[in-house]
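Reopening: Dolichol-phosphate mannosyltransferase still failing for me.
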Amino acid sequence: MNESLVIIPTYDEAENIRPIVARTLAATDDGVHVLVVDDNSPDGTGDIAEQLASETDRVHVLHRTVKDGLGGAYLAGFAWGLEHGYDRLVEMDADGSHHPEYLPWMLELADSNDLVLGSRWVKGGQVENWPWYREALSRGGNLYTRLALGIAVRDATGGFRVFTRTALERIDLDGIASKGYCFQVDLCWRALEAGLHVVETPITFTEREHGVSKMSGNIVRESLTLVTKWGIARRLREARSLVRDHHRLPSVRRNAHVA
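Support: Ran it again with your exact input. Result attached.
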């Protein structure tokens, strides 16, 4: 059985895909494979990915004809990875903002945890080349997420993470409606509600050098709306449990810690 699969979603990442795949393969052993999930990029990213796959059996390509957001791309990658028998599935950006050199340590942490989060906002984590307003937006969004959902995770919006096969099988992937960057909060929230063990480990996040960020105002609004909705729903379930069964729901804080 194959060990680990690094899923890299792409849309117009022709300048970035070859170097990030090369770094990923160099940083890991032969048990780690890469799946490029390309959403029909008009700049030829998919063709470059196919060239990489022809050069090594550690690289695979999944072409999608519908561009339905980051969440849709990762869900397709998860389904492919589970079908092909991988034990650990990794989320990683194509633009170089996530350093694949962290992968050996993150994969090791997955031996004793269900979900490993590469965190910018725990002690030792940091961002490089971000303007102050981007950092303020990320820190503020994560603070609101912690307060709204009652969780202890410092970086629930980060996109560099490792799931075990068991974790993905216990999360209701079919019920996920968020497609943008709120997808990351959605998965983390579902993992905590399912009682999975979540660990954060510090990383350095580096802003992309090539291409254009996919962040937008619509993404931020979607995130705020959904997080608020999930927080209210959790509190209503908590109240019903107290009235009906006279006990609280299992804590969503106790299973999260920092490595």
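The chain has a mean pLDDT of 92. If you still see a failure, please send the error message rather than a screenshot.
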